[in-house]
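Lecture 7 notes: from sequence to structure.
We start with the chain below.
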Amino acid sequence: MPADNRIHPLIALRAVRGLLRDREDTRQAFLLVEALRGKTTLRQFARFCASESGRALLAEHPRFRERNREMHDLLHVVAGYGRDPLGEACVLAFTFAQNGSRGAAAIALVGAWRNLRRLRTLRAPRAVWEAYRQGRRALWLIWADWETLLEQPLDEVRVRFRVAAPLHYPQLRERSVGAAAAADQMRLAAA
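Predicted structure tokens for the same chain:
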């Protein structure tokens, strides 16, 4: 567990600026999450330890940091969001609703802003807001027994954890993927 539970707003602000300059700079995303973490990790770990699946998993001595990173990818699949920039913003909004990570919230807000500017439609921030609401309605997925759940059909997992299909994101997905590809080509041409 981290020794420093303080929030570091200046580091967070620099990381946000870095993300606004380059959305692919994942180092800035990690810095932002760390800077805004505070006691979120401690609260989530206490909640996890109090759960039956948490106690069982702890007995197996898992590598928590790796498991937490893999959880992000699982949320993409279960919540129904792609790896495009809008999908990333949505899954981070969903994550914030699930675990209260201010870093995830900040990145989701930056993503909503960038997608609003890039896609030129208010439906982009609506998709991010919808993802947040989905995460609030869903049961707690963060420390679910994924080792067992991976063997089950995706639709059954979604029903079990009350994860509804997104409405706004699928309407914008093709547009988002196309805009991201065009931006990547422009970046390569400039290099």
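Points to note: The chain is about 75% helix and 0% strand. Residues 65-184 form one domain.
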